[in-house]
Write a structure and sequence with these properties.
heterodimer; B: 78 residues; alpha+beta; four-stranded mixed β-sheet; globular
Chain lengths: 352, 78
C-alpha cells in the first residue's frame, strides 16, 4: 500500500522538457506583453469618463500603466534571481567569509549579501550562525545591510521604472554604505553589546547539511517557487505603492513638491529618512512612489535617502534583531547606516 | 514513528512546511510527531541559518525555503 502511493507520488510533476519549453514560452509572452503596455494603458484609460489631462485622468493613466509593468518586471526579476541564487547558500557564504581577512571581508560580505538568499525572518539565525563561526561582527553587518539595501528586485525595478543611471547610482552607493557601515562598526569593537547568550554561544557550526546537487530543471523550479511565494506576498504592497505614486503624479502640484523635496530645502534629506524608517514596505512597493516623486521634480539625493531608509532600515527588522543585539548596538547600527544615507542624500543634492 | 522538528520563528513558511510534512506523512501512511522550534537559540544550536529548517529523527535535512514535496517523502521513508 505504502509503496503504491509512493510510486504515484513520484509520477506527478511534468517531465523536464515541458519545464524548459513552458518557461521559454512564458518569457516570450511576457516580453511581448511588456512591449504593448503603453497602448494597453491608453486603451484602458479611455474607458474612464474623465479627460486624459485632468488630475484623475493622469492618476488613472499612471496606475493602469504601472501595475502590469511592475508585476511583469517583478515576476521576471524574481524568477531570474531565484535561479541564480540557487547556486548560493548561507552555509557556503559563511564558509567563505569565516576564512577571509577583514579588509577583504567587508566588500565581499556586501557582495554576498546581495547574492545569498535569505528572508528577514532568517536574519537572527543567520546572524548567530555567522558570528559563532568566527565571521567578524562588522563583516556580518556588511552582509546584513547589503542584502535588503541592494537587492536585485529593487535594482531591476529602478532600472525599469526610472532608468539605468539612477539604478547604477543606487547600486554603487548602497554597496558603499553597506561596506563602510560594516567597517566602521567592526572598528568600534561592539562585541560586548551582543545579548549575553549570543556571546556565550561558542559552539561553532553544527548540523551539517548534505551538499545538494541540483539539475537545471530543479533550479528553474526554485525560480518559479520564488515567484509564487514572493509575488504572491508583495503584490498588495505593489498596488498600494503604485496607488500612492498615482495620487502624487496626478494631484501634487510641482511647486509644492519642489518646496518640500526640492534641492533647496536642506532639511528635507533628514526628514526623508525620518519618514522612511517606520514605513514598512519593500522595494517593490516604494519604487513606484520614487518614480512619481522624481517625475514631479523631487531632488535625487532626497529621493535616494527616502528609498534607502525605507528599504534598509525597517522597524520590524530592528525588533527582530533585538533578540541578539542589545538596544545600544541597535542604536549604533541605526546611527551608522543613517549617517551613510544622509551623506548620500546631501552629496547628490549638492552635485546635481 | 518518525520525529520531525521544524525550526523557524513561526512565520507563514514554517506553518506551510508543517502542513507539507503532515500531508506527505498522511499520504505515505507514516506516523510522525512534529515539534516546532521557534526559539532563536535552539534554532542556532541546531545549525539552521535560514529558516524554515527540517530535522528528521535528529538529523538536519533541510534549511531555507519550503522543502520539496518529493524530497520530504524521501526523508520520511529513509
Amino acid at each position: 500500500m505504502t509503496i503504491e502511493t509512493h510510486e504515484t507520488m513520484q509520477k506527478h510533476g511534468a517531465p523536464d522538457w515541458v519545464w524548459g519549453a513552458g518557461i521559454a514560452v512564458l518569457a516570450g509572452l511576457g516580453w511581448l506583453a511588456y512591449g504593448q503596455l503603453i497602448p494597453f494603458a491608453n486603451w484602458v484609460t479611455a474607458w474612464f469618463p474623465v479627460p486624459r489631462d485632468s488630475h484623475s485622468g493622469e492618476a488613472i493613466a499612471f496606475f493602469v500603466y504601472d501595475v502590469p509593468k511592475v508585476l511583469l518586471l517583478l515576476t521576471g526579476i524574481v524568477f531570474v534571481t531565484g535561479v541564480l541564487r540557487s547556486w548560493f547558500s548561507p552555509e557556503k557564504t559563511r564558509a567563505i567569509l569565516a576564512g577571509k581577512r577583514q579588509i577583504v571581508g567587508y566588500p565581499l560580505a556586501a557582495m554576498l549579501g546581495v547574492l545569498t538568499p535569505f528572508c528577514s525572518c532568517s536574519s537572527v539565525p543567520l546572524f548567530i550562525g555567522f558570528v559563532s563561526a568566527g565571521v567578524p561582527l562588522g563583516v556580518t553587518f556588511s552582509f546584513l545591510i547589503a542584502g535588503p539595501m541592494v537587492g536585485p528586485v529593487g535594482l531591476g525595478l529602478l532600472y525599469g521604472l526610472v532608468g539605468w543611471e539612477i539604478a547604477t547610482i543606487y547600486l554603487v552607493f548602497g554597496f558603499s554604505i553597506a561596506t563602510l557601515a560594516g567597517y566602521v562598526m567592526g572598528k568600534m569593537g561592539l562585541e560586548r553589546h551582543l545579548q549575553d547568550w549570543v556571546r556565550e554561544l561558542n559552539t561553532g557550526p553544527v548540523g551539517n547539511l548534505p551538499e545538494e546537487t541540483l539539475s537545471f530543471v530543479d533550479r528553474l523550479k526554485i525560480g518559479t517557487g520564488q515567484v509564487r511565494e514572493i509575488v504572491g506576498k508583495v503584490w498588495i504592497w505593489v498596488l498600494i505603492g503604485i496607488g500612492i505614486g498615482a495620487l502624487i503624479h496626478g494631484y501634487v502640484p510641482e511647486a509644492v513638491m519642489l518646496k518640500i523635496m526640492g534641492g533647496e530645502a536642506w532639511w528635507s534629506v533628514p526628514a526623508a529618512v525620518v519618514v522612511g524608517v517606520p514605513m514598512y514596505t519593500n522595494a517593490a512597493g516604494v519604487i513606484p512612489i520614487v518614480e512619481a516623486l522624481l517625475g514631479k521634480g523631487a531632488a535625487l539625493g532626497t529621493t535616494l535617502a527616502f528609498m534607502m531608509s525605507v528599504i534598509a532600515l525597517s522597524l520590524p527588522e530592528m525588533i527582530i534583531l533585538k533578540q541578539v543585539l542589545k538596544l545600544r548596538l541597535i542604536a549604533i547600527f541605526l546611527a551608522v547606516v543613517s549617517a551613510g544615507i544622509l551623506a548620500t542624500g546631501y552629496l547628490f543634492n549638492a552635485i546635481l | 514513528m518518525k520525529s520531525v522538528k521544524i525550526y523557524g520563528p513561526g512565520c507563514q513558511r514554517c506553518d506551510t512546511t508543517e502542513k507539507m510534512v503532515r500531508d506527505v506523512a498522511a499520504t505515505l501512511g507514516i506516523e510522525v510527531t512534529i515539534e516546532k522550534v521557534s526559539d532563536a537559540k535552539s534554532i542556532a544550536l541546531a545549525g539552521v541559518m535560514s529558516t524554515p529548517g527540517v530535522a528528521v529523527d535528529g538529523t538536519l535535512v533541510h534549511a531555507g525555503g519550503l522543502p520539496d514535496a518529493a524530497k520530504l517523502e524521501q526523508w520520511l521513508t529513509v
